[in-house]
Q: What sequence folds into this?
C-alpha cells in the first residue's frame, strides 16, 4: 500500500463493518470465481472474454433496474448478486492475464470515494445532495483536467441519462440554473417554440433536454421517472382495453373525447 493510499484510508474511522459477516462472503465470491476460471474449472467460464461477457453485464444491469422499479427488495438482492458476479468475473479475467485484480478495482474505487467526498473525509461543507453532485463533477474535472462535456460519456447511455450527466458536468463548472423557477421558465419557452417550429425533431430534443434540467433541480432522475411512467401507461392501457371489451366498444368508432374519457376511467 502506498503512502498516499494510507493517507486516504486514515480518514476512514476504525470499527466493525456494518454487516453481519464483515464482507467475508465477498472473499468467498472471489475464491469461487478463481476456482471456476482455474485449472479443472468450468469450460464455459474459462473461455469467456471481456467482450463476450458485455451483453450479460448489460442484461444484469437492466434486471437490477427492473427490480428497483418494482420495489421488490428480495429480487433486488438476487439481481445485485448477479451484477456483482459480473464484476468479479471481469476482475478475475484481468488477473488471469496479469493485468490487475479485484483488489486493484476495490483500491481504486475506495480512493475515488474518499477524494470525491471531502465533505465527509475532509473539511468541506455542503448545503445538500445537489451540491454533492456538483462538487463530484468539479473534483473529477480537476483530477482529469478540462475536457469536453461529452468526452468519455458512453454513446450507449440512454438519452435522458446522458443529458443529465452532461448537465451535471456543466453544473460542476458553474453553469447551472440557479432556481427551479428559472428551469421551468426555460421549459415553457421550449414548449412554445415547439408549437411554432418547422423543425420538430430539434425542438422535441430541446423540450426533453429542458425537462431533464427541471428534473435535476427537483431531485428526480428523469430516466427512472420515464421508465416508471411507461410502465404505468402500459398497465393502464391494459385496463382500458378490458373496458373496451366489457362494453363492446369499437376504438376506431370512438371520438378523441370519448377515448380520453374512458382512458381516465381506466386509472
A:
Amino acid at each position: 500500500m502506498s503512502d498516499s493510499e494510507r493517507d486516504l484510508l486514515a480518514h476512514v474511522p476504525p470499527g466493525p463493518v456494518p454487516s453481519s459477516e464483515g464482507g467475508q462472503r465477498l472473499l468467498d465470491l472471489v475464491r469461487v470465481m478463481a476456482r471456476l476460471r482455474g485449472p479443472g474449472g468450468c469450460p464455459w467460464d474459462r473461455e469467456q472474454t471481456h467482450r463476450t461477457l458485455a451483453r450479460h453485464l448489460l442484461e444484469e444491469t437492466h434486471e437490477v433496474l427492473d427490480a428497483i422499479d418494482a420495489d421488490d427488495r428480495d429480487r433486488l438482492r438476487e439481481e445485485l448478486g448477479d451484477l456483482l458476479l459480473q464484476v468479479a468475473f471481469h476482475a478475475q479475467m484481468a488477473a488471469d492475464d496479469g493485468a490487475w485484480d479485484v483488489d486493484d478495482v476495490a483500491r481504486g474505487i475506495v480512493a475515488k470515494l474518499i477524494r470525491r467526498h471531502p465533505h465527509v473525509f475532509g473539511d468541506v461543507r455542503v448545503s445538500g445532495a445537489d451540491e454533492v453532485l456538483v462538487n463530484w463533477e468539479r473534483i473529477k474535472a480537476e483530477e482529469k483536467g478540462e475536457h469536453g462535456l461529452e468526452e468519455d460519456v458512453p454513446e450507449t447511455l440512454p438519452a435522458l441519462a446522458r443529458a443529465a450527466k452532461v448537465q451535471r458536468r456543466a453544473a460542476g463548472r458553474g453553469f447551472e440554473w440557479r432556481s427551479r423557477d428559472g428551469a421551468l421558465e426555460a421549459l415553457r419557452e421550449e414548449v412554445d417554440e415547439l408549437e411554432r417550429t418547422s423543425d420538430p425533431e430539434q425542438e422535441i430534443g430541446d423540450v426533453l433536454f429542458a425537462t431533464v434540467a427541471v428534473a435535476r433541480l427537483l431531485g428526480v432522475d428523469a430516466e427512472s421517472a420515464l421508465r416508471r411512467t411507461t410502465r404505468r401507461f402500459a398497465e393502464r392501457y391494459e385496463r382500458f382495453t378490458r373496458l373496451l371489451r366489457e362494453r363492446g366498444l369499437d376504438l376506431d368508432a370512438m371520438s378523441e373525447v370519448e377515448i380520453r374519457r374512458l382512458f381516465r376511467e381506466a386509472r
Notes: The mean pLDDT is 89.
